[in-house]
Design brief:
This protein has 16 helices and two strands. The protein is mainly α and 427 residues long. Helix 3 (47-69) packs across helix 7. It is globular.
Amino acid sequence: MQSTLDSVAAVDNRPPRSATPFWIGLLGIAAGLCSLWITRDQLSLDGATRSVIACLAIIGTIAIHEIFIARVYLRPSAGLSRQAVRPLGIARVVVRLGALASVYAGIGLLYWLLPEYHGAFYQPYWTLIRSLAPYVAVITPFYFIWMDRYQRDTDDAYLLWGRLLLRGTKPANWQPVREMLAGWMVKAYFLPLMIVFLSTDADHLGESLMGAIQAPMTLASFRFMYDLSFTMDLMFGTVGYLCTFRILDSHVRTAEPTTLGWVAALICYQPFWSLISNSYIQYGGSMFWDNWLISVPVIRFVWGATIIALVLTYALTTISFGLRFSNLTNRGVITSGPYRFTKHPAYLTKNLSFWMVSVPFVEPLGWRIGFAHCAALVAVNLIYFLRAKTEERHLMRDPDYRAYAAWIEQHGVFAKLKRMVGWQPAA
């Protein structure tokens, strides 16, 4: 009897199953970093191309596990059947292709209309689009042909949207169409940013590595680890926005339903963040952590190591998603890696690193300026707090997330700290 109770307790101490195991994300990032290393001396390859190769290595590594080992396409959330559930309908496939073409046309029109996308900043993204377009054009019809036979739900979002455009038939249920269009808007906004930042980081990472090798245990090593952390984060961010497929169970389940949630997320990214931070939320002063602690090398080393631990944890939270990372959407609940300890490890570690890197409380120009910088950084923290709360409100619609949230309330790191200090919630 006691052994049975111990087994139940052991099960209760484990979080609900994660949509992706943490170890497969680590295997994927190992493949991606190896690709960057192998191609580092290829002068014919620019940062964008090397980034794409690294992302493909990640996708290939994780997809092999997801399809052939985990067989995620058989999960109920994927909406697919082990065997064909209907004969092939060419007309349905054509309608879906028309719907997808209209989505691409709409996104292209927005890129053309908005001056933000006309400069050289997004050139790596346009390079990627030109490289992938022929392959997408060839593969997409075959993917839709396969989906038409194996997808349980005949009237999916693409078919509903295509019928509306081609025949004027209004959907009986607009929800799938709204989720599909919102998912594409998320991808259209974030994928260009991920590609641009990743291609830049891929070029800088090699230089950082050489500096760390030539001067180990110095600030050069810190810069390399710092750059490496954000490169890993961007690699999995890019992969997540590229891989929204039912066969990988990485499709968009739901998108953020509120304007507040969208605004809280978008203002943290370009071009909105530059406009806001330059005019209203400037928290960086005239001194940063490395200069502040230059006269106390031991504390400087510990401070820098703590920053690296924070940004590495931040990167590991993104790696935890495997192929499912995305802002503003639910593509499967992650409970492994850093998410085993708290619901928002990325926001927590990122915001702590802001304080430790910028040290706004240290200001040679006077306490008033230092106080203003601290207030600005608190405002940034509140924006991320708002993002966390709107994301929770969205994800709580998913029973898997509700189970995870309940588990964290009992077993998360903050729950354990509360029990250690004897804190009890008010009745």
